[in-house]
Queue: 2 jobs
Job 1
Amino acid sequence: MDRTVTLLLGITLTFASSWLGLVFAPYVQMNNVQPIKGTTDDGVEEMYPRPLEGEAAYGREVYIANGCMYCHSQQIRSEHFGNGADIKRNWGVRRTVQRDYIYEKPILLGTMRTGPDLANVARRWSGQGGKDWNHLHLYAPRMMMPGSLMPSFAFLYEKRRITGEPSADALKLQGEWAPEPGYEIVPTPQAKALVEYLSVLDHNRIMLPEAQE
Amino acid sequence: MAASTVVNGLTSPNVSNADAGALAEEQCRAAKERAAIDSASRLPALAWLAGATFWLLWASFFGLVTSIKMHIPWFDVRVIMELGIISTLLSVPLMVLIARSKNLSLDAKIGFCTFAFVAAAALWLVLRTWVFDIRWSEHGGAWQTFGRTRMTHLSLIGYGWGTQAGIAGILWLVPRLSRTPLIYPNALIAAAAIWNVGIFAGVIGILAGLGTSVEWLDFPPFVPPFLIVSLAIVAAWGIVTFTRRQESHVYVTLWYCFGAMFWMPWLYTVAVIINIYSPATGVVQSACNWWFAHNVLGLWLTPIGVGAAYYIIPKVIGRPVYSYYLSIIGFWSLALFYSWAGMHHLIGGPIPPWMVSASTVGSMMMFIPVIAVGVNHHMTMLGHMGQLRYSPSLRFVVFGAITYTAVSAQGAIEALREFSEVAHFTNYTVGHAHLGAYGFFTMIMFGVFYYMVPRLTGQEWASSRLIRLHFWLCSVGIVIYFTSLSISGWFEGRQMNNPDYPFIQKMSNELPWLICRSIGGAMMSLGHVAWAILFVLNICGVGSRREGPTFFREKTSAEVEAELNGSTATPAEVALASR
Ligand code: HEM
Ligand code: HEM
């Protein structure tokens, strides 16, 4: 029986050590990180980060359900890491740190960059122009970016017969992507929410003291 | 060689040939006992294996679909499904005719049936394209978008195939090594049923858009309870069996199996709570996520694979393992270091640097168990490589054991910051993932099953040609898969780290390699079909009753003699170990 005890004790202890070190310790160290007050690029004072609300929060669920994370990461690495390319590529202005993610459930750091990092995609595609671009890109990636490997998310859009005036939010598609005459492509609520999420997705809104290098 | 002559838990004193008579008697008794133990394990082990095989086919299907979608983003799965269904309908009548024929050998029947299917598929392809001009409505559907097929693939690989294959192996190995017939067979069969209901619900859930996008935990929240209950049953069974064992010597395979059964339920439960049910704050989730995902590989799949190799290699070649002490060092250093290595998946990420450092150290220390296991496996094989020509189990297991050394050495290097700067976020990781989860774990499990199933069903494999086909498709497939992604991944990383290199250019450079990956993956998938056919035929009792193992070819008596002369083991030991 002595072997049974050794074995049980051994496998419990070795394993528990890593649980304490890699799960419990970070839990204690990081579970209480709080938002702080800071100034955005436009000089507005605000608490950062803030939880997503309404349409953007729903958009995040669409992002999760369709596994965008398996091609897009959401983390900017230090300027001393990987040649500092994340920042030099304009994917962000500073590295992301623990505080940037405190409201994210689940967190979407990602492990793959088949497509570009999206941690701060709102900075690249901002305003109404950005939203229009995102809709067109989600519907027909290869129209906006010839040769793109991103799949089309056309199932988030609806093809409708035009009755009377064309809808205001109909996509301005061209060439082989345009629907046949008399029809239009309009975003579903899911597509609108997803684009809303992309247009607020910004992990660099304010400069955090701990992110300074 | 170490003085120990432990052969798979049966400690035999060093014997002279004079004792051979007594040993022959002992051997006969042991063989009978093993047969009795195997017959008690039959149903539960086969139930888990049937589930594993079923989901392996689906996992391969979704893997292949995912892979094709990466280089043909508009690829529509419904075309393959239509092709599959129609070719089956067209070819089944022919197949029935072929199967009924009395003058054809089994190999010829399998060959003709395959031909009938391929011909039907080709015929339909021509008809649909040029005669009927069938076109599916554009843009597929939400269920087959890349993100969802990717989640489905990984979930099916991890839980549908990997875990079930591991449990099937455990249910056969543990009773044998404890020398107690399997207890509570019905509970284990019920556990298999619960597990498979969970997997089925999970796959439907992910495809319907309920996936969680937490890597390795993608199943929707209603699935984990099924899996936890099922794992708990298996773990409880393991503990009871272990305390009831008749064999006082605990062979190293048993250590690994026992550790695995104990770690997995704990891991999974903690991870599901911290990541799914009540998510912790921010990056604590990532830490837990990768602690879990890494340990699923390192403390669940790896110990089962390594432990099984420790059993099969000595068993088939009829020699004790090279060093008993190395095997102990290997086990304990694995338990200690592997569990600490998880954060190497987050190098450069927004987690405290001390965690990454701890994991890099853990990863480097992994060289200890890897070298211990490698020396032990490979030195046991040394001088017996000739046996690879005969034994299918040995061929798969040795392929896996060699890959284990390779993938772990590669992994330890990937855990270095300088290397991760390039390789992380690229297909290089995916190449490594398949070298490990496929080249090592999956190949070893196939080897185990080639040994195990005939002993459970009393039925030999129907066709050694098909086994050979299985081996070559899978091994060549994974080599293509791994090589192309490693090359591609390295360039991707270098190009992404160069801020002046256009992203879109990096993407188009991947294309040829992604196509090679699809080719390698298609070969692997075909290999899995061959395995499934063999398994089903065996279960249905097609083929000869079992007398001796199926070899690729029979040994001549001169070869047998030469082997005995070249071996340090006594003939009695060889006889003891070789059943
Ligand atoms: C039938 C052939 C297979 C093909 C074509 C295939 C293809 C793929 C693809 C395309 C991915 C996604 C990679 C990405 O997101 O960039 C993937 C992921 C993965 N596959 Fe497979 N797979 C196959 C079989 C298997 C098998 C048998 C296993 C192992 C048991 C396996 C284990 C994995 C793992 C662990 C991942 C996750 C990799 C990561 O996250 O880095 N695959 N596979
Ligand atoms: C000493 C042994 C090993 C070490 C140190 C190691 C290290 C690593 C590292 C550093 C990564 C992350 C790469 C990145 O994201 O940049 C990784 C990924 C991976 N490794 Fe290993 N590895 C080892 C052995 C194995 C074995 C034996 C298996 C298979 C059973 C395996 C399967 C995987 C898989 C599936 C992934 C991808 C995980 C994912 O992204 O989903 N590794 N490994």
Note: The domain at 16-76+136-577 of chain B is CATH 1.20.210.10 (Cytochrome C Oxidase; Chain A).
Job 2
Amino acid sequence: MQITFKDVTADYQIGPLRTPRVLDSVDFNLEPGTFTAVIGHTGSGKSSLLKAMNGLLIPVKGEVHIGGTVINRSKNKKSLKTIRKKVGMVFQFPESQLFAETVEQDICFGPLNFGVPLEEAKRIARQVIQQVGLGPDILTKSPFALSGGQKRRVAIAGILAMQPEVLVLDEPGAGLDPRGKKEILSLISKWHNNEKLTTVMVTHDMEDVAHYADNVVVMEKGQAVLHKGVRELFADIHALKSLRVDIPQARKLQLKIEQETGVKLPQVCLTIDELANCLMKAGLV
Amino acid sequence: MNKLILGRFFPGESILHQMDPRAKLLAGVYFILVLFVANNWQSYGLLWIFTLVVMYLSGVKFSVYIRGVRPLIWLILFTVTLQILFTSGGKIYLDVGPITVSNFGIISGIYIFCRFVMIIFISTVVTLTTKPIDLTDGINALLKPLKRLKIPVDEISLMLSISLRFIPNLLDETQKVMDAQRARGTEFGEGNLLRQMKTLVPIFLPLFASSLNRAEDMANGMETRGYQSGEKRSTFRQLAWKRKDTLCIGTMIILTFGLIVLRTGGFIH
Ligand SMILES: Nc1ncnc2c1ncn2[C@@H]1O[C@H](COP(=O)(O)OP(=O)(O)OP(=O)(O)O)[C@@H](O)[C@H]1O
Ligand SMILES: [Mg+2]
């Protein structure tokens, strides 16, 4: 599903006051089926950008198109609900939204709200709980009795169960151990490919960008200052420096090798495997 | 969520901001008591002048105070209506069974209304001009005498200051959880009362869970740093009684005399 931001400006209202623009003339277009990473410094408006995709932050100017549905100042409740059905949003630390008596009830909460019959919702719950790498026996447990990593998976399962066409995730790996984080991200990536979703993920980790995303949006002070393919972004060393964006390990190593040997490899390598292949092809090892 | 005014602090430099919290608390409570001395339009007029001057001195915009009254307006109007309907005497305008609308009723309705609004205004002034932490220090200081009666004053004020400290966090968190449940298709403020109540469960349960966790973390943190209840402790912030504060108490005494002079029936009813 296509996501288009047309000159979107938004802010928050606190009592009588309005914050400065948290989104400032954001304008880009995400093609259906892409996996986009949103990066930027803290407070740059990444989470707000995601909220705007789900109708939780309504633009004061401009519009957001999700497929055929438009969110703008004169939105109505019905179109918000349509959008929220299509766009599954995983918040930062999503485990704080768990509330039900059992894991099954919590996973069914979203689908039931969107009018899926109970039996069908239960069937979906059974399916998604396995997709997130947990056994069906966990369905009858209380979500509060689970470990942190398990809670995270259950919360994500609760979103996947809504069978969204667009998946937006706010730092889904934050606060997990490296292995748990990798597992979660690869299950998201798998789900993205299997279901042909359009996925947007906020992350601070350039390794994640290199491994999972195909496009990058860089946010700075509420503006989307750059929207590019991942390889193009990491090819342009000068741009990376001026945006103060880190470089993934494999790419760093590649640059070092190129500098030492004077040989320029034919492609930008994002993972160690790619780099190894490239080096072998170039006959450097 | 962000509309509650009563209980908020507005940073500022006014004379009221600089006063000792003890003086403000004492004066605030005393004002509420002395309100009941007024019984005619002259004495209510004096109270209004006092209230408006104090509000002006706080340096906070008038509209902020009006917004403070707004959430309570139905409660106020309800009480006023009862007062009007069930007070009899004087000239009668309407009489249906036990319900009468008389000019006594209307007048006492107006007085009740004034009392409510002035109480809200004055307590809002106190909280708007006093940092929550100073407020709890002030309460602690004023309740000190109750220690003799074996009432755990320090613990109570510690509880109070911790609660105040976490109100903003709780509001933020409420917003976050509401957003998260909205994203899962909940619509707040829709349907009948029962349905609306049901939508609250997915908000309150996560909030309770996180509050309990935080309370436990906090208790552990305090214990590992050697907190012991019932010990005598010194305070980091010292309250200082100043000239302004004495002046404030003096003003309250003058106000009292003014009311006694103006009310009908003099000192005794
Ligand atoms: N609910 C809110 N009410 C008022 N202001 C907010 C709210 N949420 C965010 N802001 C403000 O909007 C700006 C952008 O915040 P946002 O959460 O989108 O940043 P972010 O890029 O996600 O940061 P981080 O990397 O720390 O998560 C910040 O200045 C923040 O203070
Ligand atoms: Mg964020």
Note: Residues 193-224 of chain B form the longest helix (32 residues).
